[in-house]
Design goal:
The chain is an all-alpha fold. Helix content is 70%, strand content 0%. Helix 3 runs antiparallel to helix 5, helix 7 packs antiparallel against helix 11 and helix 9 runs antiparallel to helix 10. The longest helix has 29 residues.
Length: 253
């Protein structure tokens, strides 16, 4: 698929790998969902069990689509070296010889909140806003260039900091989740390794400043997709607290 065109930059200087990294991290500093009010409440210990259940149940829809997203990206490359490297991401979430991957670990987290795994897996109670935003991510990696699809994964450049913060907060404020935190502990090592590979790929395959800006824009859109999921959660379960018909309804106020 041909790369999209974007408006020329006032500064057409081709970025070095380090300059590109800085540019991408600026996007994360400004737009990553660590700044979202829902996450701020979580990290301050101000969410109820029901609100955490809503988060775990809805976030499962995103988690369950990650290996599908990665399989789409993998299928679009004719480079066996790239495919072998990217395949690791699918196995990280689906598991390999055993199903002990990220999806299974997330289900244990959901169970720690008090939900049954069967209820979570069905995805019948996922918020429309979450479903639409996650599906938009699949559309992005399917319909845009491979360069942009890989670039959209670069939220992993700054996810380790959020995971470290979240682990500390969940252990401090929600000790009853202790048996369900394996997912985050595994991602502390997986995410930086994945980010290094993706950054190297886009640095080698973005041959002009315009192509580098396509990578930056893809990362912005991924941040918007993550933010939109939390917008839906906040509106439904925090303020004003209006879950739509058919969505998950916490038993507690």
């Amino acid at each position: 698929m041909a790369l999209r065109t974007i408006e020329p930059q006032a500064d057409s200087h081709f970025l070095s790998v380090e300059e590109l990294r800085v540019r991408l991290r600026q996007v994360g500093d400004e737009r990553y969902h660590h700044r979202h009010p829902f996450h701020l409440l979580m990290h301050e210990g101000r969410l109820s069990r029901g609100q955490l259940q809503a988060w775990a149940l809805n976030r499962y829809y995103y988690q369950s689509r990650i290996p599908i997203k990665d399989a789409i990206i993998l299928s679009r490359s004719d480079d066996p070296i790239f495919r072998r490297a990217w395949r690791k991401r699918v196995l990280d979430h689906d598991g390999d010889v055993t199903p002990e991957g990220g999806i299974e670990r997330w289900l244990r987290l959901a169970e720690a909140t008090g939900l049954s795994r069967e209820r979570v897996i069905k995805c019948n109670e996922v918020l429309p806003g979450v479903r639409y935003s996650v599906d938009a991510y699949l559309d992005l990696v399917r319909n845009r260039s491979l360069l942009e699809a890989v670039g959209s994964s670069l939220t992993e450049l700054f996810s380790r900091e959020l995971i470290s913060l979240r682990l500390g907060a969940l252990r401090q404020f929600y000790p009853w989740l202790a048996g369900g935190l394996d997912y985050f502990e595994a991602r502390l090592d997986q995410a930086p390794a994945d980010a290094d590979f993706a950054l190297q790929y886009v640095a080698e395959h973005a041959h002009t400043r315009a192509e580098q800006e396509l990578v930056v824009q893809a990362l912005r859109e991924k941040c918007d997709i993550l933010w939109a999921q939390l917008d839906a959660l906040y509106h439904a379960y925090v303020q004003p607290g209006w879950p739509p018909p058919g969505a998950f309804s916490p038993e507690e106020p």
